[in-house]
Specification:
The structure is a single chain. This protein is an alpha/beta fold. The protein folds into 2 domains: 2-137, Glutaredoxin; 146-213, no CATH class. Helix content is 54%, strand content 13%. It contains 7 helices and 5 strands; from the N terminus they run H-E-E-H-E-H-E-E-H-H-H-H. The chain has a 5-stranded mixed beta sheet with strand order 1-3-2-4-5, covered by helices on one side.
Length: 214
């Protein structure tokens, strides 16, 4: 533990000197639903955190990856963070179930891992680039796969339906029960239309249908 604290002290001094002399000065990029596509190219370290002061451990550890981002640019690695409470859809797309999980992305390859939860351990983890040794996740589970993209769009639709129900509730003064009934009706109608469309496409594109046409 003493050695880890000594490493952390040296790291802090190094970063302070780097910032004072100019350094790369690369800031942590805020990743949201609108700009997440940029992480699919190049090398990215994405951290799923909470910017709320109520998450004390997130607030305590954030300076570590902020300092890391100031010199990781020389390694070709950009650092991004997702504010999970304000970006539930993007968190769902990456299948993140708890705070301080992270992804290391390298040209479309995804490595998923839990960050160490103490400053010395987190510093050593980043300094040694231990995330590069994590086994990549299967392609079908990656956020860029067709399956996860479909789930992502369904989550976006769910948020839209929920927002529209809240809008109706506020604008027309309907009760919470009525708002939930409207939300349920919207979900039912959409599910029916989606199911009908999938059955229709299956009928049109089935091998038997194509055989008859040929």
């Amino acid at each position: 533990m003493a050695a880890a604290n000594w490493h952390l002290a040296l790291f802090s001094i190094f970063i302070a000197i780097g910032v004072a002399t100019g350094g790369d000065g690369i800031k942590v990029v805020e990743i949201t639903d609108s700009n997440w596509g940029q992480v699919l190219s190049g090398k990215w370290l994405i951290i799923f955190t909470s910017l709320s002061p109520t998450c004390e451990i997130c607030t305590d550890l954030q300076p570590i990856w902020e300092r890391y981002s100031k010199w990781s640019g020389s390694l070709g690695i950009q650092v991004g963070q997702v504010d999970v409470p304000h970006n539930p859809t993007i968190s769902g797309k990456f299948m993140v179930k708890r705070l301080l999980q992270s992804y290391y992305l390298e040209n479309g390859t995804f490595r998923h891992f839990q960050l160490p939860l103490t400053k010395p351990d987190l510093f050593l983890y980043l300094e040694n680039q231990s995330f590069e040794k994590v086994e990549p996740i299967p392609n079908w589970r990656s956020p860029g796969s067709p399956l996860i993209s479909l789930i992502f769009h369904l989550l976006q639709l769910s948020e839209y339906l929920q927002a529209s129900s809240n809008h109706i509730k506020q604008k027309f003064g309907v009760s919470s029960t009525s708002a939930y009934l409207i939300f349920g009706l919207e979900t039912f109608v959409f599910g029916f239309l989606l199911g009908f469309t999938m059955v229709l496409l299956f009928k049109l594109l089935s091998p038997r249908k194509l055989l008859k046409v040929n």
